[in-house]
Amino acid sequence: MSTQPTSSVKALVFDTFGTVVDWRSSIAKEIGDLAKRKGFTVDGDKFADAWRGGYGPSMNRVRTGELPWTRLDDLHRVILDKILVDFRITGLTDAETDALNRAWHRLRPWPDAVGGLTRLKKKFTIAPLSNGNIALMTAMAKHSGLPWDCILGAELVRRYKPDREVYLSAADFLDLEPGEVMMVAAHVGDLRAAKALGLKTAFVVRPNEFGPAGKPDLKADASIADLSAKDFNDLAAQMGA
Amino acid sequence: MSTQPTSSVKALVFDTFGTVVDWRSSIAKEIGDLAKRKGFTVDGDKFADAWRGGYGPSMNRVRTGELPWTRLDDLHRVILDKILVDFRITGLTDAETDALNRAWHRLRPWPDAVGGLTRLKKKFTIAPLSNGNIALMTAMAKHSGLPWDCILGAELVRRYKPDREVYLSAADFLDLEPGEVMMVAAHVGDLRAAKALGLKTAFVVRPNEFGPAGKPDLKADASIADLSAKDFNDLAAQMGA
Question: What CATH architecture is B23-106?
Answer without folding.
Answer: Orthogonal Bundle (1.10)
